[in-house]
Amino acid sequence: MSDSSVQSQLCSDLLPREAIIDALYRAETAFDSNDKALFETSVTDDMVFTMNGGTVSFGKDALWGFISSKDTTHFASNIRVMYASGSDTAKMTFTGLAQHYGGGTGNDLKAPYFLAGGLNKVDLVKGSVEGVEVWKIKHWAMDRIWAQGDQGVLH
């Protein structure tokens, strides 16, 4: 019993702070399940991802191309939302942890991996997907604090 339409994956009855956090959950679930349609619901067309003060920068399509070629698991914790009631913009911070394997190698116990943790700052705006009001990520800045494993997995 599964409905794979994008609209079926959107929650329209969330409180504002829940709806803001849902944009992050949609993005990370899309990364880990390789679901481009779900990813598209979570980011604006002009979304930018930066890392370590802008030393790495991706637009929406480049970020999807980078992440969708890998087996990943992403976790977010310590989520904080800065939002004024009625506003069309919000900010969020969270601590993230991401495990990366080459595409198709995530279940290989001997495969190289890259694990990283860091602090994230996200700017969001209200948007709409198929008539459902949602929040979308406009800018995602990650400052990596630590990493372990084979960084070659990222290339």
Gyration radius, rounded: 16 Å
Lateral strand order in the biggest sheet = 2-1-6-5-4-3
Provide the helix percentage.
10-25%
Number of helices: 3
CATH architectural label: Roll
| Proportion in β-strands | over 45%
Write the layout of secondary structure elements.
Blueprint: H1 16-33, H2 36-42, E1 43-51, E2 56-59, H3 60-68, E3 70-82, E4 89-102, E5 113-129, E6 132-149
Parallel strand pairs: 1-6
Antiparallel strand pairs: 1-2, 3-4, 4-5, 5-6
Helix pairs in contact: 1-2
Domain SnoaL-like: 14-140
Pfam families: SnoaL_4
Protein name: SnoaL-like domain-containing protein
Describe this structure in words.
The protein has 155 residues and is an alpha+beta fold. It has a single domain, classed as Nuclear Transport Factor 2, Chain: A (Roll). 22% of the residues lie in helices and 48% in strands. The protein is built from 3 helices and 6 strands, in the order H-H-E-E-H-E-E-E-E. Strands 2-1-6-5-4-3 form a 6-stranded mixed β-sheet. A hairpin with a 6-residue loop joins strand 3 (70-82) and strand 4. The radius of gyration is 16 Å and the shape is globular. The mean pLDDT is 93.
Can you give keywords for this protein?
155 residues; alpha+beta; Nuclear Transport Factor 2, Chain: A; six-stranded mixed β-sheet; 3 helices; globular; SnoaL-like domain-containing protein; SnoaL-like; NTF2-like_dom_sf
Put the structure in a nutshell.
The protein is of the alpha+beta class and 155 residues long.
